[in-house]
């Protein structure tokens, strides 16, 4: 049994700590606040680690569980290999403004802290907080779309009227994180609420106009339906509700599009992507992504064994020389650490996929089976969006979800005599 069933009743410390962290990170408040004059986001990670350390002090077994989790060692290798590259490939280069060399350590600490704290919480209560954060995010997305500049001033460089992101600032990140939150919630949601979850996911992703998040949301929805996550009654309800939701979405979309503050060309270009099945050529964003992908691949082939090191990929880094990094996790890690970086990321995907398949095949309950599907979909999330984003491993929401679900997986395995 896990720690939340221990006779010593200190679960309140873990619950309050983790729920506070979830509310902060699932609303993206640390990053949003920092962009507009708030404190360094590093302080939030320090607070998470301090709270986890306090819990471990009171319940040392939490540390034992962490040290028996394979994913912890992946993050440890991820962090230590980054420091190794800094020492030898970058010749000890450090810069206060360069976050790349310390992001890996921060992610390791966040994963460890959330894993430890999750062992002491009521998981259903945690999922309820996740669901509340999803609702809050979707409301913010539509406010951002209908009332441009509510969250980001017009003169800010991150301003992108017409594409909703709310507190997440970046619409592509916002759409992707909404999908992974819904994936994590589904196995623990009562059947009667599942129609609401799939509608929320669709209605939330739509105003971000993120092509990758939209495709992923469609894939996730199909998997849920095909794998029996909905009863016949809920499927019937879904068929009835979807047309009404579509009418509401279309009405809100038209209302927002009528605003003179919307970037109509940007929105039209993204809609055209789906109309032409991705065959359009006039999309500047897509052209830039293709260029940086080609550049990253070229640089990798020049130094395939060790890469170019842990530096911020912008125009100040001579080996890169372009204002934007490659929007690709595979190419980013291969550029930084050569073939080792590619192996590292594929191993990360493999661990998640293995856990999902194992749990699904040996499931004794509906919850176990659906959690196995959730792990497989999370592996798909990191694999698919990794082709379009280089920030997946520094996005706190994904790391917190992964840590929490791994604890739940451990709980289910410990209750299965076949794993004894």
Overview of the structural elements:
- With 420 residues, the chain is an all-alpha fold.
- The protein has a domain at 147-166 and 179-280.
- Helices cover 67% and strands 0% of the residues.
- It is built from 17 helices and no strands.
- It has helices at residues 11-26, 29-35, 42-58, 61-67, 70-88, 100-118, 123-146, 171-185, 194-205, 211-226, 232-257, 264-275, 284-302, 329-337, 339-361, 366-385, 396-414.
- Helix 6 packs parallel to helix 17 and helix 9 (194-205) packs parallel to helix 11.
- The longest helix is centred in the middle third of the chain and has 26 residues, at 232-257.
- It is globular and about 55 Å long.
- The relative contact order is 0.12.
- The model is unreliable at 1-7 (pLDDT under 50).
Question: What is the fold's blueprint, element by element?
Answer:
Elements: H1 11-26, H2 29-35, H3 42-58, H4 61-67, H5 70-88, H6 100-118, H7 123-146, H8 171-185, H9 194-205, H10 211-226, H11 232-257, H12 264-275, H13 284-302, H14 329-337, H15 339-361, H16 366-385, H17 396-414
Helix pairs in contact: 1-3, 1-6, 1-7, 3-6, 4-6, 5-6, 5-15, 6-17, 7-8, 7-9, 8-9, 8-10, 8-16, 8-17, 9-10, 9-11, 10-16, 13-14, 14-15, 15-16, 16-17
- Helical content, roughly? 55-70%
Overall pLDDT metric = 87
Q: Termini separation (Å)?
A: 13 Å
**Regions with little confidence, pLDDT below 50 for 5+ residues:** 1-7
Oligomer classification: single chain
Question: Count the strands?
Answer: 0
Order of helices and strands: HHHHHHHHHHHHHHHHH
Number of helices: 17
> Which band does the percent of strand residues land in?
under 5%
**What summary fits the major beta sheet?**
none
SS class: mainly alpha
Radius of gyration, CA atoms, in whole angstroms: 22 Å
> What is the 3D form?
globular
């Amino acid at each position: 049994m896990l720690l939340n069933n221990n006779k010593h009743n200190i679960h309140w410390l873990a619950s309050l700590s983790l729920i506070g962290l979830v509310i902060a990170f699932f609303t993206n408040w640390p990053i949003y606040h920092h962009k507009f004059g708030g404190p360094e986001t590093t302080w939030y990670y320090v607070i998470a680690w301090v709270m986890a350390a306090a819990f471990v002090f009171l319940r040392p077994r939490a540390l034992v569980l962490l040290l028996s989790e394979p994913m912890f060692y992946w993050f440890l290798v991820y962090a230590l290999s980054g420091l190794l590259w800094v020492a030898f490939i970058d010749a000890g280069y450090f810069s206060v403004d360069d976050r790349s060399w310390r992001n890996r350590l921060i992610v390791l600490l966040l994963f460890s802290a959330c894993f430890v704290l999750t062992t002491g919480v009521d998981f259903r209560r945690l999922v309820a907080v996740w669901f509340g954060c999803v609702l809050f995010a979707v409301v913010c997305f539509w406010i951002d779309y209908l009332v441009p500049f509510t969250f980001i001033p017009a003169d800010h460089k991150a301003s992108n009227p017409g594409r909703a992101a709310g507190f997440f600032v970046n619409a592509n990140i916002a759409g992707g994180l909404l999908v992974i939150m819904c994936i994590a919630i589904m196995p623990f949601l009562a059947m009667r609420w599942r129609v609401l979850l799939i509608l929320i996911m669709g209605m939330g992703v739509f105003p971000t106009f993120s092509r990758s998040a939209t495709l992923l949301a469609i894939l996730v929805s199909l998997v849920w339906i095909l794998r029996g996550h909905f009863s016949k009654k809920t499927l019937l309800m879904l068929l009835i509700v979807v047309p009404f939701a579509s009418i509401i979405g279309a009405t809100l979309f038209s209302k927002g599009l009528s605003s003179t503050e919307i970037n109509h060309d940007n929105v039209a270009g993204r809609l055209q992507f789906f109309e032409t099945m991705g065959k359009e050529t006039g999309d500047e964003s897509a052209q830039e992504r293709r260029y940086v992908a080609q550049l990253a691949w070229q640089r990798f082939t020049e130094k395939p064994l060790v890469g170019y090191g842990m530096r911020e990929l912008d125009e100040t880094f001579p080996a890169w020389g372009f204002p934007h990094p490659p929007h690709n996790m595979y190419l980013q890690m291969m550029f930084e650490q050569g073939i080792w970086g590619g192996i590292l990321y594929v191993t990360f995907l493999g661990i998640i996929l293995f856990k999902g398949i194992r749990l699904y095949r040996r499931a004794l309950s509906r919850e176990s089976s659906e959690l196995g599907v959730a792990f497989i979909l999370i592996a798909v999330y990191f694999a698919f969006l990794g082709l379009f984003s280089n920030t997946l491993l520094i996005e706190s929401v994904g790391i917190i979800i992964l840590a929490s679900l791994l604890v739940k997986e451990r709980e289910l395995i410990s209750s299965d005599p076949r794993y004894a």
